[in-house]
User: What shape does this take?
Amino acid sequence: MLILWKEYSYKIEKENPRLFSILNNQNPTLESGNKIILDLRNQIQETELIKEKPALINYLKNRLSNNTIEIIAKVVTEVQNEPNEGFTASEKLNIMIQKNPALAMLMQNFNLDLY
Assistant: This one.
């Protein structure tokens, strides 16, 4: 499953670099043979995953020959052992969103993106 997960992420790398980053930075866990659990850091990541979720599920179902696969995304509110200061722009943004979740909604409403 993890090999196909990475394969799919590289398939969409040019079309959706944000989702590519999300799929490669968070490793999913498999529960009871058909539930894929993915811990996300914020609402923006969840929104991106929700947009692509049907295509990802179909890809995994077809490649694994398992029609009962489901993906469950959880936004983890507190990440332990994380530094107080971010080094990259996206890390700084994630820290700011953790402190003020309204920032994620603002970015989504105005279709803002980091480059």
Q: What stands out?
A: Residues 40 and 69 are 19 Å apart (CA to CA). The helical segments are 2-11, 17-25, 43-64, 89-99, 102-109. The mean pLDDT is 86. The beta strands are 29-31, 35-40, 70-75.
